[in-house]
Design goal:
27% of the residues lie in helices and 30% in strands. By secondary structure, it is of the alpha+beta class. The strands form four sheets. It has a five-stranded mixed sheet. Helix 3 packs across helix 4 (82-90). The longest helix has 16 residues, at 134-149.
Length: 244
Amino acid sequence: MTATTGFRAFSLEPFPEIKEGASITDAITSVLTDQSIALDSGDVLVIASKAVSVSEGRYVALDSVTPSEEALQLSARTGKPAEVVQIILDQSSGYFLATERGPIIARHRLGYQLTSAGVDRAGMDGAWLLPADPDASARRLREELTAATGVQVAVVIADSDGRADRRGSTVIAIGAAGISPLRVSEHTEDGGKVKRQEETVIDLVAAAGGIVLGQRGRGAPVVVIRGLCYEPGDGGVASILHRR
Protein backbone atom coordinates (compact mmCIF):
# COMPACT_ATOMS: atom_id res chain seq x y z
CA MET A 1 0.00 0.00 0.00
CA THR A 2 1.28 3.47 -0.92
CA ALA A 3 2.33 5.55 2.06
CA THR A 4 0.52 8.76 2.94
CA THR A 5 2.79 11.73 2.25
CA GLY A 6 0.25 14.44 2.97
CA PHE A 7 -3.45 15.01 3.52
CA ARG A 8 -6.05 17.75 3.85
CA ALA A 9 -8.58 18.18 6.66
CA PHE A 10 -11.56 20.52 6.43
CA SER A 11 -14.81 20.89 8.33
CA LEU A 12 -18.30 20.94 6.85
CA GLU A 13 -19.84 24.20 8.00
CA PRO A 14 -22.02 25.99 8.74
CA PHE A 15 -23.55 22.76 10.02
CA PRO A 16 -27.20 22.53 11.09
CA GLU A 17 -27.93 21.71 14.71
CA ILE A 18 -28.43 17.99 15.18
CA LYS A 19 -31.53 17.15 17.18
CA GLU A 20 -32.84 13.86 18.49
CA GLY A 21 -34.01 11.69 15.60
CA ALA A 22 -32.40 13.91 12.95
CA SER A 23 -30.44 12.33 10.11
CA ILE A 24 -26.74 13.13 10.17
CA THR A 25 -26.48 11.93 6.58
CA ASP A 26 -29.14 14.40 5.47
CA ALA A 27 -27.34 17.19 7.33
CA ILE A 28 -24.02 16.29 5.69
CA THR A 29 -25.46 16.12 2.17
CA SER A 30 -27.25 19.42 2.77
CA VAL A 31 -23.98 21.16 3.67
CA LEU A 32 -22.21 19.54 0.71
CA THR A 33 -24.88 20.93 -1.61
CA ASP A 34 -24.99 24.37 -0.01
CA GLN A 35 -21.20 24.74 -0.11
CA SER A 36 -20.78 23.13 -3.56
CA ILE A 37 -18.49 20.47 -2.11
CA ALA A 38 -18.18 17.02 -3.66
CA LEU A 39 -16.81 14.08 -1.70
CA ASP A 40 -14.00 12.13 -3.34
CA SER A 41 -13.69 8.37 -3.30
CA GLY A 42 -11.50 7.45 -0.35
CA ASP A 43 -12.43 10.46 1.78
CA VAL A 44 -12.71 9.71 5.49
CA LEU A 45 -15.42 11.54 7.41
CA VAL A 46 -14.61 12.05 11.09
CA ILE A 47 -17.88 12.57 12.97
CA ALA A 48 -18.12 13.73 16.58
CA SER A 49 -19.65 11.05 18.77
CA LYS A 50 -21.94 13.53 20.51
CA ALA A 51 -23.68 14.30 17.21
CA VAL A 52 -24.32 10.58 16.77
CA SER A 53 -25.52 10.25 20.36
CA VAL A 54 -27.94 13.15 19.96
CA SER A 55 -29.24 11.76 16.68
CA GLU A 56 -29.79 8.38 18.32
CA GLY A 57 -31.48 9.83 21.39
CA ARG A 58 -28.90 8.67 23.95
CA TYR A 59 -30.02 11.21 26.57
CA VAL A 60 -30.42 10.54 30.29
CA ALA A 61 -32.27 13.01 32.52
CA LEU A 62 -30.46 13.45 35.83
CA ASP A 63 -33.72 13.53 37.79
CA SER A 64 -34.32 9.94 36.68
CA VAL A 65 -31.11 8.74 38.37
CA THR A 66 -30.84 7.59 42.00
CA PRO A 67 -27.21 7.70 43.17
CA SER A 68 -25.87 4.70 45.07
CA GLU A 69 -23.68 4.99 48.16
CA GLU A 70 -20.63 4.33 45.95
CA ALA A 71 -21.68 7.17 43.64
CA LEU A 72 -22.16 9.52 46.58
CA GLN A 73 -18.70 8.74 47.95
CA LEU A 74 -17.09 9.11 44.53
CA SER A 75 -18.95 12.37 43.99
CA ALA A 76 -17.54 13.74 47.24
CA ARG A 77 -14.01 12.85 46.13
CA THR A 78 -14.23 14.15 42.56
CA GLY A 79 -16.70 17.01 42.80
CA LYS A 80 -18.87 15.55 40.05
CA PRO A 81 -22.63 15.50 40.63
CA ALA A 82 -23.66 12.20 42.20
CA GLU A 83 -26.20 11.55 39.44
CA VAL A 84 -23.53 11.91 36.76
CA VAL A 85 -21.19 9.63 38.71
CA GLN A 86 -23.97 7.03 38.93
CA ILE A 87 -24.42 7.15 35.15
CA ILE A 88 -20.67 6.63 34.74
CA LEU A 89 -20.82 3.62 37.07
CA ASP A 90 -23.83 2.22 35.20
CA GLN A 91 -21.92 2.45 31.91
CA SER A 92 -18.76 0.90 33.33
CA SER A 93 -17.40 -2.47 34.32
CA GLY A 94 -14.62 -0.90 36.40
CA TYR A 95 -12.79 2.38 37.03
CA PHE A 96 -9.91 4.12 38.78
CA LEU A 97 -9.05 7.72 39.60
CA ALA A 98 -6.15 9.32 37.77
CA THR A 99 -5.46 11.50 40.85
CA GLU A 100 -6.99 11.78 44.29
CA ARG A 101 -9.80 13.92 42.85
CA GLY A 102 -10.08 12.39 39.40
CA PRO A 103 -10.69 12.30 36.57
CA ILE A 104 -12.54 8.99 36.59
CA ILE A 105 -10.94 6.59 34.11
CA ALA A 106 -13.55 3.94 33.38
CA ARG A 107 -13.68 0.72 31.42
CA HIS A 108 -16.84 1.10 29.40
CA ARG A 109 -19.10 -1.93 29.09
CA LEU A 110 -18.38 -1.93 25.34
CA GLY A 111 -14.69 -2.50 26.11
CA TYR A 112 -13.25 1.00 25.75
CA GLN A 113 -11.20 2.71 28.47
CA LEU A 114 -12.48 6.28 28.57
CA THR A 115 -12.58 9.26 30.87
CA SER A 116 -16.00 9.23 32.59
CA ALA A 117 -17.01 6.26 30.42
CA GLY A 118 -17.63 8.71 27.61
CA VAL A 119 -20.54 10.33 29.49
CA ASP A 120 -20.98 13.93 28.35
CA ARG A 121 -22.89 16.50 30.42
CA ALA A 122 -25.94 18.04 28.74
CA GLY A 123 -26.36 21.29 30.66
CA MET A 124 -27.50 21.08 34.28
CA ASP A 125 -30.25 18.54 33.77
CA GLY A 126 -28.94 15.65 31.74
CA ALA A 127 -26.13 13.70 30.14
CA TRP A 128 -25.38 12.04 26.83
CA LEU A 129 -24.24 8.43 26.61
CA LEU A 130 -22.07 7.01 23.86
CA PRO A 131 -23.86 5.49 20.87
CA ALA A 132 -25.15 2.03 21.79
CA ASP A 133 -22.93 0.40 19.12
CA PRO A 134 -20.51 2.95 17.60
CA ASP A 135 -19.20 0.56 14.94
CA ALA A 136 -22.75 -0.20 13.79
CA SER A 137 -23.49 3.53 13.72
CA ALA A 138 -20.38 4.11 11.59
CA ARG A 139 -21.37 1.34 9.17
CA ARG A 140 -24.88 2.76 8.81
CA LEU A 141 -23.57 6.27 8.18
CA ARG A 142 -20.99 5.01 5.68
CA GLU A 143 -23.66 3.07 3.76
CA GLU A 144 -26.05 6.04 3.76
CA LEU A 145 -23.35 8.47 2.63
CA THR A 146 -22.14 6.16 -0.12
CA ALA A 147 -25.72 5.75 -1.36
CA ALA A 148 -26.38 9.51 -1.18
CA THR A 149 -23.17 10.67 -2.85
CA GLY A 150 -22.29 7.77 -5.13
CA VAL A 151 -18.70 7.58 -3.87
CA GLN A 152 -17.02 5.15 -1.50
CA VAL A 153 -16.07 6.84 1.76
CA ALA A 154 -15.02 5.72 5.22
CA VAL A 155 -16.41 6.92 8.54
CA VAL A 156 -14.68 7.32 11.89
CA ILE A 157 -16.72 8.27 14.95
CA ALA A 158 -14.49 10.26 17.30
CA ASP A 159 -14.74 11.08 20.98
CA SER A 160 -12.63 13.33 23.19
CA ASP A 161 -10.76 11.48 25.90
CA GLY A 162 -8.35 12.32 28.70
CA ARG A 163 -5.30 10.35 29.71
CA ALA A 164 -4.49 9.11 33.16
CA ASP A 165 -0.89 10.34 33.02
CA ARG A 166 -1.46 13.95 31.97
CA ARG A 167 -3.84 16.89 31.92
CA GLY A 168 -5.99 17.77 28.96
CA SER A 169 -7.74 15.61 26.43
CA THR A 170 -7.15 14.19 22.99
CA VAL A 171 -9.45 12.57 20.42
CA ILE A 172 -9.78 8.84 19.75
CA ALA A 173 -11.91 6.61 17.55
CA ILE A 174 -14.81 4.75 19.13
CA GLY A 175 -16.39 3.54 15.89
CA ALA A 176 -15.20 3.00 12.32
CA ALA A 177 -16.35 1.63 8.98
CA GLY A 178 -14.71 1.37 5.59
CA ILE A 179 -11.19 1.71 6.97
CA SER A 180 -9.07 -1.01 8.54
CA PRO A 181 -8.47 -0.05 12.19
CA LEU A 182 -4.81 -1.08 12.14
CA ARG A 183 -1.93 -0.16 9.87
CA VAL A 184 0.42 -3.15 9.90
CA SER A 185 4.05 -3.24 8.84
CA GLU A 186 6.60 -6.03 8.98
CA HIS A 187 10.36 -5.99 8.57
CA THR A 188 13.11 -8.55 9.02
CA GLU A 189 15.67 -7.85 11.72
CA ASP A 190 19.22 -9.12 11.91
CA GLY A 191 19.06 -12.84 12.46
CA GLY A 192 16.02 -13.26 10.25
CA LYS A 193 13.37 -12.50 12.88
CA VAL A 194 10.31 -10.84 11.44
CA LYS A 195 9.07 -7.92 13.53
CA ARG A 196 5.42 -6.95 13.17
CA GLN A 197 4.26 -3.45 14.10
CA GLU A 198 0.68 -2.28 14.39
CA GLU A 199 -0.58 1.31 14.49
CA THR A 200 -4.14 2.22 15.37
CA VAL A 201 -4.61 4.28 12.24
CA ILE A 202 -8.22 5.09 13.11
CA ASP A 203 -7.03 6.90 16.25
CA LEU A 204 -4.54 8.85 14.15
CA VAL A 205 -7.36 9.80 11.79
CA ALA A 206 -9.64 10.77 14.70
CA ALA A 207 -6.90 12.94 16.20
CA ALA A 208 -6.30 14.64 12.85
CA GLY A 209 -10.00 15.42 12.65
CA GLY A 210 -9.97 16.57 16.27
CA ILE A 211 -7.54 19.37 15.44
CA VAL A 212 -10.29 20.88 13.29
CA LEU A 213 -13.28 19.80 15.39
CA GLY A 214 -11.93 21.40 18.55
CA GLN A 215 -13.33 20.74 22.00
CA ARG A 216 -15.96 23.42 22.55
CA GLY A 217 -18.17 25.75 20.62
CA ARG A 218 -17.08 25.09 17.04
CA GLY A 219 -20.48 23.79 16.00
CA ALA A 220 -18.88 21.75 13.22
CA PRO A 221 -19.20 18.06 14.11
CA VAL A 222 -17.95 16.63 10.79
CA VAL A 223 -14.48 16.84 9.28
CA VAL A 224 -13.41 15.45 5.91
CA ILE A 225 -9.92 13.94 5.73
CA ARG A 226 -8.74 13.78 2.13
CA GLY A 227 -5.61 12.21 0.67
CA LEU A 228 -5.06 9.37 3.15
CA CYS A 229 -3.79 6.04 1.94
CA TYR A 230 -5.47 3.28 3.94
CA GLU A 231 -6.64 -0.29 3.75
CA PRO A 232 -10.42 -0.62 3.44
CA GLY A 233 -12.05 -2.76 6.09
CA ASP A 234 -15.06 -3.09 8.34
CA GLY A 235 -13.51 -4.63 11.44
CA GLY A 236 -14.26 -1.48 13.40
CA VAL A 237 -12.93 -0.53 16.81
CA ALA A 238 -14.41 -3.64 18.43
CA SER A 239 -12.01 -5.85 16.46
CA ILE A 240 -8.94 -4.36 18.14
CA LEU A 241 -10.14 -4.15 21.74
CA HIS A 242 -8.41 -6.30 24.33
CA ARG A 243 -11.72 -6.75 26.15
CA ARG A 244 -15.15 -6.63 24.53
